[in-house]
Amino acid sequence: MNGSLTGDSNLIKELNKSVVLNTIESQGPISRAQISKDTGLNKATVSTMVQFLLDESLVNEIGFGKSGGGRKPMMLYFNNKAGYSIGIDIGVNYILAILTDLNGNIIQEINEEIKNTKEDIVIQQIFNTIELLMKSLPRSPYGVIGIGIGIPAMVDKQDKILFAPNLDWKNVKLKEVIEEKFNIPTSIKNEANSGALGELNYGVGKNSNSIIYISVGIGIGAGIVVNKQLYTGANGISGELGHLTIDVNGKKCSCGNRGCWELYASEKALFNSLEHSDLSSNKTDVNIENIIAEAKNGNNEVLNSLNSIGEYLGIGIVNTINSFNPETVIIGNRFALFENWITNPINRVVQERLFSTHKSTEILFAKLGKYSIALGASSFMINNFFLNKK
After folding, report:
1. CA-to-CA distance for 98 and 104, rounded, in angstroms?
2. Phi-psi map region of 143: left, alpha, beta (phi>0 left; psi -120 to 50 alpha)
3. Residue 241 near residue 221, CB atoms below 8 Å
4. What is the percentage of the chain residues whose pLDDT exceeds 90?
5. Phi/psi-derived region of residue 28, left when phi > 0, alpha when psi is between -120 and 50, beta in every other case
6. Which CATH number fits domain 84-196+373-389: 3.40.50.300, 3.40.630.30, 3.30.420.40, 3.30.2350.10?
7. What span, in angstroms and rounded, lies between the C-alpha atoms of 96 and 1?
8. pLDDT value, residue 5
9. What CA–CA distance (Å, rounded) separates 271 from 288?
10. CA nearest 191: which of 213, 171, 160?
11. Which end of the chain has less neighbouring CB within 10 Å, N or C?
12. Strand pairing partners for 382?
């Protein structure tokens, strides 16, 4: 019986500490008295929890506030510089790595091209980017609290990479490799799940309960959020919408199937459509930056390709909305940079094909742009850090 009471007491303490920390984080600067008033916790409990947080360097006292008639209150503020998180977005042809504080503010970033997708070469690139970010690390009580990685792959609930078709990776234990190298807690997530977390925590998904984040890169993946919680399926590998068949007799996909959505509505599809265009024949690299420049210049071949890709994106989005009926669909990853040119064809197809009962769903582009995935991966580690501090 005593053990049960002790367990209940510890749980209550953890909950109270979490409530106080969340209140300071969201409303600070704030006084102890105001925390008590807002949370319903008595003043003695609030003072005890605040002292724990001060001792752990998660909260700072920043000086006295204005008096409401009595003694001036000491104001409390969340110490977002108590530690730092690393978020890494691994694409098929790039690495984007960021260092963030505990509020998700980006302190430093590194962009690198991936020229060879061979597993050991990419892992060495990841090591190098982590080491570079750690060199720029400001002094703090906790240092790097975690490394989060988003990767275009099927990742199970133990963070093992089962299959990354566009990287040609199978059964890769990247989490263990990084933790052994740096001795820092590490999480590996599907890149669309990471992007969904990024937009949910910091972007256009903050006010939505149900989200489908569609990550459009070399391939297509989806992060599914239900009641503000990431849904990953029985084995952790939900959201592979890029491999839904939209053409039964279509092109052969690297996954082994035919006619997959990502073959018609992705970066790779766009690059392939421009392979024999003026852009290519003029010895110009067919990459996102040059395609955007040509679109701005009114290049008809580029505009036509973007229109076609937008229509195919619209077809897949219709299927997605009909299947999930989310509040919000968010188009993210680097393809969000083409918003100006693909919005109209997407909306046109959706208006033509979507059930009228489903037309309340908002279709938005990622607010965080190219940072959605890296910020989502970083935020996962920040949340884990706070869970372990309770």
Report:
1. 10
2. left
3. yes
4. 73
5. beta
6. 3.30.420.40
7. 52
8. 42
9. 9
10. 213
11. N
12. none
Peptide bond into 152 cis (omega under 30): no
Tokens, residue 342: 């693909």
Look up residue 4 and give its amino acid. S
pLDDT value at residue 281: 60
108's tokens: 């430093």
Please give the class, per CATH, of domain 206-366. Answer: alpha beta
R_g of the chain computed on alpha carbons: 23
pTM above 0.85, yes or no: yes
CATH architecture of 2-78: Orthogonal Bundle (1.10)
What is the edge-to-edge ordering of all strands in the sheet holding 144-151? 106-113, 94-101, 84-90, 144-151, 186-190
Locate tokens 């210049």: which residue? 297
- How confident is residue 1, by pLDDT bands cut at 50, 70 and 90? very low
User: Contact 362/329 with Cβ under 8 angstroms?
Assistant: yes
Residue 88 contacts residue 126 (beta carbons within 8 Å): yes
Phi and psi for 117 in degrees, rounded to 5? -85, 10
33, 76 Cβ separation under 8 angstroms? no
Q: Which two tokens stand for residue 224?
A: 């599914």
